[in-house]
Amino acid sequence: MLDFSVYPNGDSALDIRFNSKPSENLSRHIIGLKEYLLNKNPNNFIELIPAYQCLTLIFNPALFDSEMLSQKVQQSIQDFLKAHKNISRKSRTIRIPVCYESIFAPDISILSKHTGLSRKEIIKLHTAPSYLVHMLGFTPGFLYLGGLNPRLECPRKKNPRVRIPAGAVGIGGSQTGVYPQATPGGWQIIGQTPIQLFHPYSSHPFLADPLDIIKFYSINQAEFDDIHQSRIWN
Amino acid sequence: MSIYFIRPGLQTSIQDFGRPGLMHCGIPQGGAADILSMQLVNLLLGNCLNNPVLELTLTGPVIKFECDISIAIAGAQFNVLLNKITVENYKVIQVKRGDILEFGQLLSGTRAYIGLSATIFTSQSFNSVSTHLISHFGGNKGKAISYEERLHLKNIRIAKSAHINRNLQPCYQSRPLLRVIYGPEKKRFTELALSNFFRKTFQVSAQNNRMGIRLSPSIIVDSKAITDSSDEMISSGLYPGSIQIPNNGEPIISFIEGQTIGGYPRIAHIIRADLHRLGQLKAQDKINFQLVHQAQAREILLKKMKYLENLKNNLAPENNESFIL
């Protein structure tokens, strides 16, 4: 049985924290628990935010007493953990093209220096894994991915950039990911994808869901331009 | 049927309750920064409480009305003129086609809300016309209103006259005391860091927007560590009112368009009943934090809700919606 604790997080939320390391198995439990709680009491929570080792439940404190809700939630988690040993959701594999050429990779030389790997080796190691989407968060459609090769780990920038373009692919510590929007950011940028990760006006606004698999593949600048241009017809 | 912006003001946007329920996709709730003022203008006009309003920040617009309509203004106190004659906040104002509304000097607060006895016809995403200014979606294609822009209106009617008595209007102090309860990482902070947090008067930095409110000074003294523990923080859910302490010790309050997951230790959390007051903070304002317990936080909230319920029964007894704080 997974070890967990429930803590108040402000007067409007509870954090359910699990004491295991981030893993696919734990993410499956957290996503499964989120869906279980949502189905059981659809009106109790305004938001259910899964993270690597934590599920945050936001409620309206005018309707619930935090202490009482916490007890109810603890009981529900026990029930869930007993009843749902195998949480299965079919994962999709989504391929994301990335252009690692210098024009899109302002920090690839920093990464090269830090890791001792050549540009070619960096691309090879970055495109090899099947990354697991643990959760979405931070900004709309941002994917938190697990599975970066430890040889590619590199600290974040001391001074974050004020603006990095939408689609920028970066490495920050032991994480890698794609910025869906042009935002400030502190990761080392090693490439850019021409595809859009977030479509705010579409019926399918997000490229991927938690527990999906992401694979990056390398494209050249001409292919980048082709894909980027074809976006206007979508 | 429309309103025309001769000048847009510094940042005028369309807002409603926002988009609750999407934080697991990284989409913050957004919506009006001062949700209380937003609901009060709608209450005055006999609208449903979630009717889209205009939120203006620090410098107000100059608007020409191209139809007869009723409006109400609440929140920050500006010197507001309709055809050069001063008008009051918290009161239904009857406007004629061709009238010009001007916002002059800001007297208190930061954000004012203009309610309209009509629906704003604009772009929508995720069931809300709230303009998400940081990621550019929602009302007005996700952008603040610009010069010579026209907003189209539908369902226009004329509202009955109504006002909220002065003693019942919210007022915005220049040095608010914001009530908080301890955050989940309280135990990570040294006693000194915690006592600094409650002892110090913080100043709102120029870096404050709908995403977050940065404060200074630092709660670290003599470069002592702020946390006792050195183990890795678990990135977890943030929501409006979460107060994180990054390595430099200067608190950051998450706000309505804030990131949904964060990794800095959360020292405390603004209580829900005080969240709407964050929408009236501006650079240089001074704030203090006061610790309350969970039970007190709830009592304060229920008391405010009850007050709003009474106000609603007086102004619009036929409206059976609940206020949201």
Automatic annotation (TrEMBL), chain A:
Organism of origin: Microbulbifer variabilis
EC number: 3.5.2.9
Lineage: Bacteria, Pseudomonadati, Pseudomonadota, Gammaproteobacteria, Cellvibrionales
Identification of the protein by name: 5-oxoprolinase subunit PxpB
Carboxyltransferase domain sequence ranges: 4-208
SMART domains: AHS1
NCBIfam families, per the entry: 5-oxoprolinase subunit PxpB (TIGR00370)
GO molecular function: 5-oxoprolinase (ATP-hydrolyzing) activity
Pfam families for this protein: CT_C_D
Signal peptide coordinates: none
Keywords: ATP-binding, Hydrolase, Nucleotide-binding
TrEMBL record, chain B:
InterPro entries: CT_A_B (IPR003778), Cyclophilin-like_dom_sf (IPR029000), PxpC (IPR052708)
Domain Carboxyltransferase: 24-307
Keywords: ATP-binding, Hydrolase, Nucleotide-binding
SUPFAM superfamilies tied to this protein: Cyclophilin-like (SSF50891)
Keyword Iron-sulfur belongs to the record: no
Pfam families: CT_A_B
SMART domains in the record: AHS2 (SM00797)
Domain of life, per lineage: Bacteria
Protein name stated in the entry: Biotin-dependent carboxyltransferase family protein
Originating organism: Microbulbifer variabilis
